[in-house]
Design a protein that fits this description.
- The chain is an alpha/beta fold.
- Helices cover about 40% and strands about 25% of the residues.
- It contains twelve helices and 14 strands.
- The chain has helices spanning about 5-20, 60-70, 90-95, 115-125, 130-140, 155-170, 185-200, 215-220, 240, 255-265, 285-300, 315-325, and strands at about 20-35, 35-45, 50-55, 75-80, 85, 100, 175-180, 205-210, 225-230, 230-235, 250-255, 270-275, 280, 305-310.
- The strands form three sheets. Strands 6-7-8-3-9-10 form a six-stranded mixed β-sheet, with helices on both faces. Strands 2-1-4-5 form a four-stranded antiparallel β-sheet, covered by helices on one side.
- Helix 4 (about 115-125) packs across helix 5 (about 130-140).
- The longest helix has 16 residues, at about 5-20.
- The mean pLDDT is about 90.
- The structure holds adenosine-5'-triphosphate and magnesium ion.
- Adenosine-5'-triphosphate (ATP) binds near residues 38, 56, 58, 60 and 64.
């Protein structure tokens, strides 16, 4: 059997993935409004064909970052290459290579969904036939065929979000900024949009998104950065970020203070809440360690009212990293 083609393919794949240029490269990005510093030196890199999620509390500067990187406003300092072009020297080049879906809808409510899309196609000089062909293909892809010929004023929030994305996709951009794409969507519409985003990434598109939903970052993003107090306070994969916070634990709740005392004497307690009558026991959440814990509870005849298992998730990471500012 001749393995040569397979090896050649493997080598080519390895070469293209390591040589792949970054879609976004940012160093020392700064932005202030008056004496309010919003971005105080941001560095980040987004590899082409990946999803990068920017998290942060309200007012952290996520939209500001998106607006700067998509040429809508100017930075006060720092360097950025976006879609292979220098942001400061060649903003037109950047603009030609990207698509942006803003946090707030940018469509005309009096026109129909289809008319909005065709208008956008015209703005991109797609030509009459091609513009209409792409508009119809996107209406179908985003499940908007039924509403295509109704005015936008009759669309629900989820339908408007999907049309927003269609407006961005009409020019077929290879790098897309999505500012809170699923805010206000119901769980099913959110999942539908995730599927669409995954489909785009499978086609090699790069996605830079901001979100308030940590589950969204967890499910979609290859890398996640947390913005707080003008700086990126953490950056990595979801798994890497989760390792930043203390591990999992079992929470036991007792009926009365005496049972709590009894248990605290025989179990490896890491934290105790006398008001809530709870104890925290470190745990990896695995069956083996749980059955050891249950054996000890039974052996000491402890009166446990409630047992729950907690593994660190991105919510814990987010709360831990952004706590300082909230205080
Ligand atoms: N044009 C402006 N003039 C003055 N201050 C501004 C302006 N635009 C934004 N800001 C301030 O910059 C900070 C960052 O705002 P930004 O919209 O980037 O936050 P965000 O992270 O997107 O928040 P949210 O989660 O609420 O969307 C906020 O304190 C905001 O008040
Ligand atoms: Mg915002």
């Amino acid at each position: 059997m001749d393995d040569a083609p397979r090896y050649r393919q493997a080598i080519e794949t390895a070469l293209t993935s390591t040589n792949r240029p970054a879609a976004i490269e940012v160093t020392g990005l700064r932005k202030s409004y008056g004496d309010h510093t919003v971005l105080d030196g941001i560095d980040l890199t987004v590899q082409a064909g990946t999803v990068f999620a920017l998290l942060g509390p309200n007012g952290a500067g996520k939209t500001t970052t998106v607006r700067i990187l998509s040429t809508l406003i100017a930075a006060d300092g720092g360097e950025a290459r976006v879609a292979g072009r220098d942001l400061a020297r060649d903003p037109d080049g950047v603009r030609a290579g990207i698509g942006v879906t803003g946090q707030y809808s940018a469509v005309d409510a009096l026109l129909t969904g289809r008319e909005n899309l065709i208008l956008m196609a015209d703005l991109h000089h797609l030509g009459r036939r091609e513009g209409r062909r792409r508009a119809d293909a996107l209406l179908e892809r985003l499940d908007l065929q039924d509403a295509a010929n109704k005015p936008l004023s009759t669309y629900s929030g989820g339908m408007k979000r999907r049309l927003d994305l269609a407006m961005t996709l009409i020019a077929n951009p290879r790098l897309i900024f999505l500012d809170e794409p699923t805010t206000g969507l119901d769980p099913r519409s959110r999942r539908d949009l995730w599927e669409i985003i995954r489909g785009l990434v499978a086609d090699g598109v790069t996605i830079f998104l901001t979100t308030q939903y940590l589950e969204e970052a967890d499910r979609l993003a290859d890398r996640i950065a947390v913005l707080n107090g003008g700086r990126l306070v953490a950056e990595g994969t979801a798994a890497e970020l989760k390792r930043l916070v203390p591990g999992g634990h079992v929470l036991l709740r007792f009926a009365d203070p005496r049972s709590l005392d009894d248990a605290a004497r025989v179990l490896p307690v890491t934290s105790r809440d006398d008001d809530a009558l709870t104890l925290q026991i470190p745990s990896d959440g695995g069956v083996a360690s749980l059955s050891i814990l249950l054996d000890r509870i039974n052996a000491a005849s402890l009166d446990v009212r409630e047992l729950s298992i907690h593994m660190p998730d991105l919510d814990d990471v987010f709360l831990a990293l952004t706590e300082r500012n909230a205080r």
